[in-house]
Design brief:
By secondary structure, the chain is an alpha+beta fold. The chain folds into 2 domains: 2-150, Orthogonal Bundle (Lysozyme); 164-309, endopeptidase fold (from Nostoc punctiforme) (Alpha-Beta Complex), CATH 3.90.1720. The protein contains 11 helices and 10 strands. The strands form 3 sheets. The chain has a 6-stranded antiparallel sheet with strand order 5-10-6-7-8-9. The chain has a two-stranded antiparallel ribbon with strand order 1-2. The longest helix has 19 residues, at 70-88. The radius of gyration is 21 Å and the shape is elongated. Residues 132-136 and 138-162 have low confidence and may be disordered.
Length: 316
Amino acid sequence: NIAMAVAPKVGVKPRLLFAQLVQEGGDGSQPVDRIDNNFGGMTWSPNCGYPKGTARPKAEGGNYRHYKNDSEFATDWAKTLKADFARTGKPRSIQDYVNKAKSQSYMQSNDLTNYANGMKYGYSLWKGKSSLSSAAKVADSADSDTGEDCDDTSSGSFSGSGSILKEARHWLGKFNYDASRTADAHWKHPDDSDTTDCSGFVWFVLKRTGYAVTPQVWSTPFMESDAKGAHKYLKRISAKNAKKGDLIIVNVGSGSGPLGHTAFLAENYHGNNTKVIEMGGNGNKVNEQTIAYSFTSLLPNGRVTFAEPKKVSSKK
């Protein structure tokens, strides 16, 4: 409904707009979506004309904008996009959309490849239908208002320059261990009570700090295979070269379920007393422990792989 309403205001195909909403807000179940009707991660600023909404993650600071309903969000979003595309020209493809949004600082992330992949996923979900409910009528002011008073906002995307360990430690004592992985689905705006598992937590932290990850959450068998073979996301390294922020992956047999575990090295590797930050292994929350403690049942017969995460390239 929002995409169909905003499209004629900004001169962009509704399917492209829908794709960005999916990339930014997922399925709309995140707190900022539900509480603030803010599906684009629009950030509050003193001169934007909207009240403060829920707090942004500590790593980002500030607050999101609060909209009283879908239509109010659609109006503001249309103003912002109209101003951005007036400067850059209308986007004609997903990659063109991402490049133009980046050039206007709509998003701060340098993770353009994954952003485009997220939009491609949203693009594939488009049904081309609308019930024309509350979001369908966007205020006429969007036609003339440039939106420049709110032009300093970001989309809720991440800078891609953060420290892996700083991000991992931020979540110590948070989340609940469960394979439903709601924290990964809400990776931009997670709640402390969200869920994830060991490989999901690694994916989550790398995603938030601008490292290469799969479009969907991976598993320890995939992590091991990629590190040893394709090197698309992880590069296998020797134990002596494993440093803080790198990964340890231990798999037995298939590595599925309890037969595999993974964690971040919290310090340069120096044997099984090296500390790690993990989800699981030592309880149901994100925690810090030693390799010996957390991998004790897997080490005797497990395949130990150390891997270095790969930074997303900004080259086209």
